[in-house]
Design goal:
Blueprint lengths: L1 H15 L22 E13 L4 E12 L4 E6 L3 E7 L2 E2 L3 E2 L8 E6 L6 E7 L7 E4 L11 E4 L19 E9 L5 E4 L12 E11 L5 E4 L2 E4 L4 E5 L4 H7 L3 H12 L7 E5 L8 E2 L4 E4 L12 H8 L7 E3 L6 H18 L2 H21 L24 H18 L1 H14 L3 E3 L1 H11 L5 H4 L4 H6 L13 H16 L4 H4 L4 H9 L7 H11 L7 H14 L7 H13 L3 H12 L5 H11 L5 H11 L3
Parallel strand pairs: 1-11, 16-17, 17-19, 20-21
Antiparallel strand pairs: 1-2, 2-8, 3-7, 4-5, 4-8, 6-7, 9-10, 10-14, 11-13, 12-14, 15-16, 18-19
Helix pairs in contact: 1-9, 3-4, 3-5, 4-5, 5-6, 5-7, 6-7, 7-8, 12-14, 14-16, 16-18, 18-20
């Protein structure tokens, strides 16, 4: 009763003070300097030109606004140059505040009570955090330069003057002019053929937050998978990508069976050049993804299950602030695992749960000196919101939902989630609002089963509660036996390993002692050919092990070249950050780490460069 009262009181308080939220309600977004909802930006008309020679985006962002008696419109920007501002077609004198760390510079534009449109003419700065400009040589096809954006978390403001908060949704239309012969794509209704004149028009009728604004321009082709799914990629990658993603249409249909209709029309994917810093980005209608998932055997396509799931959790129902980020990612990981299980079997999904649990334990160790950051509900006031983009939100959040499922049963959980996605469709939600909804629509129906659920410990407590569920270990028990046998006797059961998936190999390597003896590394490489694997997940883990064992780089030229090729052609932070950390941890590999980073730094996205500069050193 006490918990119920507190949750409902929190909900009532949130609704009552939505127009003037306070930190205690968590409705205030401290990572935007815009003044929504005082002035709501309803629709964006974006008209821009992409200039590869100047590496600049320039044009006009016209906002249709709803003014609730404010005297100024505040927009977020980050190193944008503002050329002029018009309010209802009349030039006005705007001001720009001094830069605030992490947040950029607020633009203040005077408006009248009846103002309807604000047009901001601008161009991007020298180092926009959202943009990676690639030369032709840095792409897969080596034919044309390439541009792509990564707007999450608060980087849309570096290429569009906008209200850049996850709780602020708007529709948009865009006209994008690019050099002839290039294709442009956005998180909107997309072309499937190149425009002869290089001018593309985009329409997004569903309201989205700024972090889901996306743009890609380059030598891109399209290939259909089925009537509503397809893949875009550079010409040298398009056939491989289409083969790898051949089952994605079935994945969308299966997701609908679980949690309701897919509401975004088409579901297409864009395979980006290697510098893309993350695995995937769930831009509506067009998932951006890394080429590292193109393994040739569909073994890493589970990442698409995650990005697809975001079209319900994240894109459809969005966290109101970055303090509530777990509402995006925890739900998505849970959805992804359920979707994967429905497409494979429980034992396969259990391996994903266990690997995720291992990732969570590693993150908890990394954050042992910052226990507050192990809470689901975060306080990122005054900090970069990317500080909260880790496995706490993903894996602890998913485990919380799984703990609920185990208490109430899968049928009740699925009924609740369908209801949840439908009720909050195209809306934003705080942690407190979700907990109140959870209590009323699910937990109240199972009071005895959920009385020891320990919600406060899950959401507001540090670490992982003692009642955290652990997946069955059936398939990993055999892996453990194979590893133990190898370490004790040097024997490897090749018959057992012949049926292993990527996940079994990862579990096999993750729990190896560190470092292994060089002779043991040689034996594993001779049997499994890890050095030459085309699977980026396995390759990265193997290369970290080779550095620790000094199997590479000092002793074997073949391994040296393989690792060099990997770091020159992969920009995904999940892989390159821990590998460079390992290289910098040993005197014998520090020189080669510095040499390689100096050579490959420009291949990496600015966000990856920021991380690696702290590890290896800057330019």
């Amino acid at each position: 009763m006490k918990t119920t009262f507190i949750l409902l009181a929190t909900l009532s308080g949130f609704l009552a003070c939505k127009s003037s939220p306070t930190p205690s309600t968590t409705a205030q977004d401290w990572h935007t300097q815009s003044n929504d909802p005082e002035v709501h930006c309803q629709h964006l008309d974006l008209n821009i030109r992409v200039d590869f020679e100047q590496q600049q985006i320039a044009g006009c962002a016209t906002w249709t606004i709803e003014n609730k008696q404010a005297k100024a419109l505040h927009l977020d920007s980050d190193e944008l140059t503002i050329d002029s501002v018009l309010v209802d077609a009349h030039a006005v004198a705007y001001t720009k505040d001094a830069r605030v760390a992490h947040l950029g510079e607020r633009i203040r534009i005077p408006i009248a009570a009846a103002s309807k449109q604000v047009a901001v003419y601008y161009h991007t700065g020298a180092h926009p955090r959202a943009l990676q400009w690639l030369t032709a040589q840095q792409t897969l096809s080596k034919t044309k330069p390439f541009l792509y954006t990564q707007s999450e978390s608060i980087y849309a403001r570096s290429w569009i003057p906008c209200p850049d908060g996850p709780g602020i949704r708007f529709t948009y239309d865009a006209t994008v002019q690019v050099p002839k012969g290039f294709m442009a794509l956005m998180s909107a209704e997309n072309p499937q053929q190149r425009a002869v004149d290089g001018i593309y028009h985009f329409h997004m009728p569903m309201a989205i937050p700024a972090y889901l604004m996306a743009l890609a321009v380059g030598d891109i082709e399209f290939k259909a998978i089925d009537a509503r799914t397809g893949v875009y990629a550079e010409p040298t990658m398009i056939t491989k990508a289409a083969n790898e993603f051949a089952e994605v249409g079935k994945m969308v249909s299966q997701a609908e069976k679980l949690y309701g209709p897919y509401r975004w029309g088409r579901y297409d994917m864009l395979v980006l050049p290697p510098g893309f810093p993350i695995g995937g980005m769930e831009n509506p209608k067009l998932t951006f993804c890394t080429p590292t998932i193109i393994a040739g055997d569909k073994s890493l396509v589970n990442l698409i299950a995650h990005e697809l799931a975001h079209n319900w959790s994240g894109n459809l129902v969005t966290n109101a602030t970055w303090n509530d980020f777990w509402l995006n990612e925890g739900f998505t990981v849970y959805f992804e695992r359920r979707l994967t299980e429905s497409l494979t079997d429980k034992s396969y999904a259990d391996m994903l749960w266990e690997l995720g649990y291992q990732d969570l334990q590693a993150t908890l160790e990394e954050l042992k000196d910052r226990p507050a950051d192990t809470k689901l509900k975060l306080d990122l006031t005054g900090r970069d919101p990317d500080d909260g983009l880790n496995d706490i939100a993903y894996e602890k959040g998913a485990l919380f939902l799984r703990a609920i499922e185990l208490k109430v049963g899968r049928t009740a959980m699925d009924t609740f989630l369908n209801q949840y996605f439908n009720h909050f469709a195209f809306k934003t939600i705080t942690t407190e609002l979700f907990l109140a909804y959870l209590q009323e629509h699910l937990l109240a129906k199972f009071p005895e089963q959920t009385k020891d659920l320990a919600i406060d410990a899950w959401v507001y407590g540090t670490g992982v509660p003692k009642n955290a569920p652990r997946a069955d270990q059936d398939r990993f028990k055999q892996v453990n036996a194979t590893r133990t046998s190898f370490l004790q006797t040097g024997a490897l059961d090749l018959k057992a390993t012949s049926t292993w998936t990527t996940h079994e190999y990862l579990h096999f390597l993750r729990l190896m002692p560190k470092p292994l003896a060089v002779a043991q590394m040689q034996q594993l490489d001779q049997v499994f050919h890890f050095t030459q694997t085309g699977n980026a997940e396995i390759a990265d883990l193997w290369f970290i092990m080779t550095v620790a064992a000094n199997y590479k780089p000092a002793m074997y030229a073949e391994q040296n070249e393989a690792m060099r090729n990997f770091l020159s052609s992969v920009g995904r932070r999940k892989f390159i950050v821990p590998l460079y950390k390992e290289l910098m941890a040993h005197p014998y590999s520090v020189p080669v780490a510095k040499q390689w980073y100096h050579a490959f730094r420009n291949n990496y996205h600015p966000l990856a460069q920021e991380s690696l500069d702290k590890i290896v050193g800057g330019k």
